[in-house]
Write a structure and sequence with these properties.
Blueprint: H1 10-13, E1 32-34, E2 37-42, E3 46-51, H2 62-69, E4 73-78, H3 92-105, E5 111-116, H4 118-129, E6 134-140, H5 160-169, H6 179-189, H7 192-207, E7 221-226, H8 234-243, E8 247-252, H9 259-262, H10 264-278
Parallel strand pairs: 3-4, 3-5, 5-6, 6-7, 7-8
Antiparallel strand pairs: 1-2, 2-4
Length: about 280
């Protein structure tokens, strides 16, 4: 799954996003480990850095990773240290600092940042502070604007049925939420450390609302949104589109919060065409 639509998303759904190291699929079988970084990498060309959401699984981007790494791009997905940073440093600012360290470590220039939910928020925060590094933004179900509404309370630990329903609510098609996915979410929700770190990131997101910063971000931005996203609903996408001065907004019907996971072929097609239209 993804990340935070914050706090509207975080306190309602934060428990829904799996740290990707917990799920091993084809693309995650050979993660690279260098220094403090663990990441997936494939392809050659301009760099696309994919930023997952809170408790987000790297495998959420399976098809996007495979597609663009075969289309003339170098695709990288770093494992964000959501649950391993010291509590005092568990925030959007330090996750963006981690991203800067990763970009420097890989000696990348003019990168494309692709973020879902919390990953989108990190991409925006990074772009605000280091615009010279960023050649393009791709946001899908991004947090960063609607952190003020608290939404539902954090689910009771041990309440499997509630976790199951909330996981299914992320998608237009509830069948996307497999038992494996629900079990993984349930495990995270019942881990005290991950809950504390999740709440810390949620609080930091409130402090880093991006509404006043977006008009100053002139990087080309592609917004891809599910019409049935109940986590970061359509009006969030419309506000991003209005505030980002060089953005294009694309809708996917019958799709929830995780477009790259629920409708990967359509997501990839929209993004590939946008890259071509913008010569990116």
């Amino acid at each position: 799954m993804t990340g935070m639509g914050f706090i509207r998303y975080d306190c309602r759904k934060k428990k829904l996003h799996l740290r990707y190291s917990q799920i091993n699929r084809v693309m995650t079988e050979e993660l690279k480990k260098e220094g403090k970084f663990t990441y997936a990498e494939a392809g050659e060309g301009r760099a696309i850095i994919v930023l997952h959401g809170l408790m987000g699984a790297l495998s959420n981007f399976d098809k996007t990773f495979a597609h663009f790494s075969s289309k003339g791009y170098k695709v990288l997905i770093p494992e964000l240290p959501l649950y391993t940073l010291p509590l005092i440093k568990t925030n959007v600012k330090n996750l963006a600092k981690f991203l800067r360290d990763f970009i420097a470590f890989k000696e990348l220039k003019d990168v494309i940042l692709l973020g879902n939910s919390l990953g989108g928020h990190i991409a925006l925060y990074y772009t605000k502070h280091f615009p010279e590094d960023v050649g393009g933004l791709v946001l899908t179900g991004s947090s960063g604007l609607y952190e003020k509404s608290m939404g539902d309370s954090y689910p009771k630990r041990g309440n499997y049925e509630y976790i199951e329903q909330k996981t299914k609510d992320v998608f237009y098609d509830p069948n996307v939420a497999t038992k494996e996915l629900i079990d993984q979410v349930y495990t995270i929700v019942n881990n005290r450390n991950s809950v504390i770190k999740t709440l810390a990131i949620a609080k930091s997101a409130i402090r880093h609302n991006m509404a006043k910063d977006l008009p100053n971000m002139h990087v080309p931005a592609c917004l891809i949104w599910g019409k049935q996203d109940h986590v970061t609903p359509p009006e969030v996408a419309e506000d991003f589109h209005e505030l980002l001065p060089d953005s294009d907004l694309f809708w996917i019907d019958r799709c929830g919060h995780a477009a790259m996971m629920e409708t990967p072929d359509e997501f990839n097609s929209i993004l590939e065409n946008w890259f071509k239209s913008r010569n990116i």
